[in-house]
Amino acid sequence: MTLQIDAHTHILSMGTDAAFTKRYGREGSLTIYRAEGKLPSHRCPVDHEWEEIEAAEGKDGFGVVGPHETVAAHPGFDKIVALAVSPQYLEGRLMGTVDVLGQTDVTGEQHPERCNEYIAGCVRAEPERIIGFASVNPAYRGVKAAVDELARAVQEDGLKGVKLYPMYQHWSPVDRDLAFPVLAAARDLGIPVMIHQAGSTRIDAKMELGRPALLDDIGRNFRDLKVIIAHCGIPWIEEAMFMLTKHPNFYTEISYHIATVTRRDLFLFLHRAEPFFVPLEKIMFGTDFPGFLYDPVGLREKLLTVNEEAAVLGLPPIPQSKLDGVMGGNFAALLGLSDETAGAA
After folding, report:
1. Where is the Amidohydrolase-related domain (predicted)?
2. Contact 135/97 with Cβ under 8 angstroms?
3. Residue 82 burial (CB < 10 Å; 0-12/13-18/19+)?
4. Domains contained in the chain, number
5. What pLDDT does 92 receive?
6. What's the pLDDT band for 19 if we cut at 50, 70, 90?
7. Is residue 25 part of a domain?
8. Is residue 30 situated within a structural domain?
9. pTM, rounded to two decimals
10. What is the residue range of 201's domain?
11. Domain harbouring 246, CATH code
12. Among 4, 98, 248, 259, which residue has the least CB neighbours within 10 Å?
């Protein structure tokens, strides 16, 4: 049976300020609605236009999705990776993962500084299905606080990796004072690091901090650290893939990218990986659920049926064992999960 793991999802809310999180969600979906012709492309939409599209789509800003809803949206999946978002200031507002609806067992004041506690609460709510990744921001309270919190999240909360967001939080992933101590801590804790090293439609995100090639210095200095490039570095996909070519300890997951291409393009992407000297064992399935285009079932179907394109293109099919790896086996191997602990039949 094919092991099925979604290596990239988000969960709960992005802040305690409902009006601000709605604006944040609207900014994230604006490019999608513009491309679909549902919102004007030549100017910023006004409130009534947003309200009309949200009523029609049944979505209101950045949706709050809890652990049980996340599992329900992933029928047939063995594991789902829930990623924390560490605290940061955006437009003067503090944002990060919080449990505004009380969907976990974490009590007390709601605050993004407790983002990793909330993710651990999601794991406790669905222990057989959800894998939790922590997040820390060394630019928020300083490097020592970030390193200490990462150690606590792994050793006390049992989280299995860490997600970093340099371009959103305006620090370089190869800053030797800010980033390297966090990377060293992850290495010493024996956990993988997933880095949002890709583009973003968020206006405040710094694109110059998102280039995958920036991670080269990490590959040179942290050769025992498992590094996952999120979103396959989109739009710099070949650059991200070359980082996997160069560095044995680099991997990628294909959320966002998989949603923007046709099944034929996905087949060609996977077919070209090994001639580009990237073993398919380094590539992992992810969705970025609950984003607007990121239906786990539909994206799984796109991946698992790519070989239907082979005959049309006159190319050999991708070996099923390698597709199975992309679907879940590769992530399980990276995290050291056995078939039993991963849930494989």
Report:
1. 5-337
2. yes
3. buried
4. 1
5. 85
6. confident
7. no
8. no
9. 0.96
10. 5-14+66-342
11. 3.20.20.140
12. 248
